[in-house]
Specification:
By secondary structure, this protein is α+β, with helices and mostly antiparallel strands. It has a domain of 114 residues: Glutathione S-transferase Yfyf (Class Pi), Chain A, domain 2 (Up-down Bundle), CATH 1.20.1050. The protein is built from ten helices and four strands, in the order αβαβαββααααααα. The protein has a four-stranded mixed β-sheet with strand order 2-1-3-4, with helices on one face. Strand 1, helix 2 and strand 2 form a beta-alpha-beta unit. This is Glutathione S-transferase. One of its GO terms (molecular function) is glutathione transferase activity. Pfam families: GST_C_2, GST_N. InterPro entries: Glutathione-S-Trfase_C-like, Glutathione-S-Trfase_C_sf, Glutathione_S-Trfase, Glutathione_S-Trfase_N, Thioredoxin-like_sf.
């Protein structure tokens, strides 16, 4: 039982107010910042997190597919240092989340933020890893929207309370463990008769889902979470995750070097 009493109106405590780079109840930039802009048409500002690596995976897949115009500069946004709250980054993504991208190949540069939005933008721009038929594209969108809505329960829910929270709490760990295992079971059932998320073809649905769920069952997220979740029981999901992990673009994206912004 907790001795916490919910106040009638929530207010920040002093520690929260003084934590410049932690969570705050307001949006917007917190300091002046000048982000570097490289020579390539696509400028990507990110970090090697499950959401952050989606953009680099996609760009490396485009490179692997022979798309010569998908050249990019990749800069590190250190979310632990609060880089995402700088003025230049907030101009690209007012929500202060990675990844974010600017396409300078047009007269008027185009900003793109949110990881799945970046995937869709690049897929449509280069006509790769996205189906053309209405039915197949709709199925693709089903899974992209599913990932967008479902992954926060894994990261902000399970991952936070199981791995990052300052002390263990049974109720939230149980709640988010059950939801995470439900999602793993869903993907495992879906992949029982499919090579990839959208069927026989590798698409941006795989790119969106693998960094979260593939790396989770492979033991790459949240310490011993794969053991705690008994992730090996999801045979179809593990087979898919291992297959995706062998792609050359995936291997490059995981180990890619980021340029400093400071």
């Amino acid at each position: 039982m907790s001795d916490y009493t919910i106040p009638k109106v929530w207010e920040e405590n002093q520690d929260q107010k003084e934590n410049k780079f932690g969570n705050q109840p307001v949006a917007g930039s917190r300091f002046e910042q000048k982000l570097p802009v490289g020579e390539q048409p696509l400028q990507v500002y990110s970090l090697n997190t499950p959401n952050g690596m989606k953009a680099t995976i996609m760009l490396e897949e485009l490179k692997e597919a022979g798309i010569k115009d998908a050249k990019y500069d990749l800069y590190k946004i250190d979310i632990g240092d609060g880089d995402q709250f700088g003025s230049d980054f907030v101009k690209i993504n007012p929500n202060s989340k990675i990844p974010a991208m600017v396409d300078y190949s047009y007269d008027e540069p185009i900003r793109v933020f949110e990881s799945v939005s970046i995937l869709l933008y690049l897929a449509d721009k280069f006509d790769k890893f996205v189906p053309n038929s209405l039915a197949e594209r709709t199925e693709l969108m089903n899974w992209l929207f599913w990932q967008t809505g479902a992954a926060p329960f894994v990261g902000g829910g399970f991952g936070h309370f199981y791995y990052y929270a300052p002390y263990a709490q049974e109720y939230p760990i149980d709640r988010y463990t059950m939801e995470t295992k439900r999602q793993l079971d869903l993907l495992d059932r879906h992949l029982a008769d499919k090579e990839y998320i959208n069927g026989d073809e590798y698409t941006i649905a795989d790119i969106a889902i693998w960094p979260w769920y593939g790396r989770l069952v492979q033991g790459e997220l949240y310490g011993d979470a794969a053991t705690f979740l008994n992730a090996q029981e999801y045979k179809n999901l593990n087979a898919w995750a291992d297959k995706i992990a062998q792609r050359p673009a995936i291997k490059r994206a995981i180990n890619i070097a980021y340029k400093d912004i400071k």
